Write the structure tokens for this entry.
Amino acid sequence: MYKHILHTVKVLVLFPILFVGVYGSSIDDESDHLHSGHDWEIGLSLGYANLVTEKEEGINSHLHILRRLGDEGWQKYISLGLGAEIIVTDEQHYGLMTTIAFHPIEDLVLAISPGLEFSDHGTGWESNYATHIEMAYTFDVSEDYHLGPVIGYSKTQEAEHYTLGIHIGIPL
């Protein structure tokens, strides 16, 4: 049953990524970059996680809140914030992190997030320092939100995982 749900999540993630990749440029051309100029963003990424070290696959959910440092100069290229991640497998994994995001061009976000990963592998809860790296390319859908593909990588001293999903951002 769990494998069937995971396969469904893979299809639900990969199809929109392909759709956005093919159709997304026309959405972006018409949008006039609607999420530019907003100081805050709440973002949610949903998708697939491959836990390399543990040889498991799971469902990934990542939530963050970011604040752009400014509208002009170098400040418009940097956001700071907080994030949380949940990976659902037979053994759940949780993460809490601070985030530094770089916006080198409109709609592209490169983020690095140092933090803690919490997991229970049957021997009790343990926590490890983790570095999470993420890249998203978003397309404005309306004034209320944008979406696009996101990929991520996270590494602790003992484990690593890759993620692939859809990012939904709500500018505030």
Observations:
- The chain has one domain: 2-171.
- The first strand starts at residue 40 and ends at 51.
